[in-house]
Design brief:
The structure is a homodimer. Chain A has twelve helices and 15 strands. Chain A is an alpha/beta fold. The longest helix of chain A is centred in the middle third of the chain and has 15 residues. At the A-B interface, strand 4 and helix 4 of A face strand 4 and helix 4 of B.
């Protein structure tokens, strides 16, 4: 039977990564730097329009699990795929990375893919066809895997799926019954805005730790950034907020720790930066590190992944600490 | 109808690229830095054994065509695929790169893939399952495309396919009848050694230009490197020989030009170095550049491709000259 110290849950996606200029993003009517949801027809049409691509396994929470494993941590992932070639690729890559992945299959939809367009400013704009992920539901929340973990981590994107809120509730039940701590990522400002009441309610009731960037924090507490940071402890016991080149901060009611970004890296593709930040932070907290060391580990992981194309580490993170 | 100034011919392959240590190469009984041919069963077994991977279109002559197009040249490619997902990926990537590719399909075998293992020394060891490529034959040599081109370029690997020598002969006939110049790459020392008499005979009778690295040159003329360079004009009117970090040289009976390697690049993955060298050199020669400028363009292309994972340029080569 699979077991893991940290279990992440989210959309199981294979990324189709291509370079594009800003005009292409505008011409295609995409919201830049965001995650745009698309259907199967649009996916076919978009594939014809983009430049040469490479296929790399992705998915926000899956990337986080791979990052934890790359540090030498014990990680598991729950997500849904199809028994097609992309499903085989996804399963190979996450298993070969050492993550426990008891696959859950959907018979009616293909494995999800995301067309990720990297613009010259290294920003990524995502266009995700959810495919098999759309049917992930409360019955797929592997009780034994979650019950045996110290932490369970939910990606915010999942809250937007038809049965995503049901997944969240079921995970919270299992976590509470088994003393598993619950973390979640805000994922995207639109995700917070679309589900503001339900998501903030869930965080207040169930989350021990949240992750977000500046935009996502401001979607929780509109207005001034510093004021938003001060208000965070009203909502959740612990938060880690990333600020891109401005570094990051870990926030609790008693402590605010700022950690600078790594200075000496050539940024190539920011895809996966937030996912790998969460990986390092969770790895640190799970093994007992404090806020500052955890934020430093998070920074190491994020720095590795933005130095190359693709949202998962190419080099073992355990060798970098 | 498709047309191109330079047409390349070879195996249509999707690369499955993974990092590996040297012990893995030894344990798996592979010849390091070479191209190892494998069958379908071995491909499945190997996929289970390798680490996380990324999928990127490849194939030696196909990479060369993409490089020519990236310089702004007019390129075409002839190769065989299946109507499966990897075939769709291959067709998308080469077409999106601006290469004329009238696909030829095989109904009985899947699209070829090559498991490329990149060791810490940045060398690549390839394990190729030829799939649909195995049936490429003389009837697939697109007469109109080749007849309309200034240059046709054959990869040496193709000579090893069951009907590869037939493809070579047919291409030579079309080229001679239409004043299309013929170039070929030696591809791999084993390829030269296995087919020494037939391949050297073909070069002497039909080739206007050959490409090779030091090992491949020595497989043509065993012994001393400088002596081998001197003997090249006995065999072929023009040759371009790469020496890795030692730069490269272009050789004719009247002229030997040495061009240094680019010094300021961090080598990540040498896959595609020779293919992109040939792209730059052919692009230069086709537009009328001399040996030195062509070797410099070749060096620019090879330098770009070894600075990242994958055997095709990520950035437009036309912007770098």
């Amino acid at each position: 039977m699979s077991s893991a110290s940290i279990v992440t849950i989210g959309n199981a996606i294979v990324d189709i990564i291509s370079k594009a200029d800003d005009q292409f993003i505008i011409d295609q009517g995409m919201e830049k730097s965001a995650m745009n949801l698309i259907d199967g027809d649009r996916a076919s049409q978009l594939y014809d329009a983009i430049g040469p691509a490479m296929e790399v396994s992705g998915g926000s929470a899956a990337n986080t699990a791979v990052g934890i494993s790359s540090f030498g941590g014990s990680a598991g992932f729950i997500g849904k795929i199809s028994e097609d070639l992309l499903g085989k690729v996804f399963t190979h890559d996450i298993s070969a990375a050492g993550v426990a992945f008891p696959p859950v299959y959907d018979a009616d939809h293909p494995t999800a893919c995301s067309f990720i367009l990297v613009t010259p400013d290294t920003e990524r704009t995502m266009n995700t066809y959810l495919g098999a992920c759309i049917t992930l539901n409360e019955d797929d929340m592997n009780e034994e895997l979650i019950a045996g973990a110290d932490w369970v981590y939910l990606e915010g994107y999942l809250f937007d799926a038809p049965r995503g809120p049901g997944c969240y509730q079921r995970v919270a039940e299992i976590a509470h019954a088994n003393n598993t701590k619950l973390a979640l990522s805000l994922s995207d400002a639109w995700c917070v805005e679309r589900h503001y009441d339900a998501l903030t309610g869930f965080i207040a009731d169930h989350a021990d730790l949240i992750f977000g960037n500046e935009d996502e924090l401001l979607s929780l507490f509109p207005g001034d950034f510093d004021a938003a940071v001060k208000r965070l402890p009203e909502l959740v016991a612990e938060a880690a907020i990333t600020k891109g080149a401005g570094g990051s901060m870990a926030v609790t009611s008693g402590e605010v720790v700022a950690v600078p970004a790594q200075q000496d890296i050539k940024v190539v593709d920011t895809t996966g930066a937030g996912d790998l930040y969460a990986a390092g932070y969770l790895f640190g907290r799970q093994r007992g590190d404090g806020l500052e060391r955890s934020a430093q580990l998070a920074t190491i992981a994020a720095s590795e992944v933005i130095s190359h194309i693709g949202a998962r580490p190419l080099d073992r993170l355990a060798d970098q600490i």
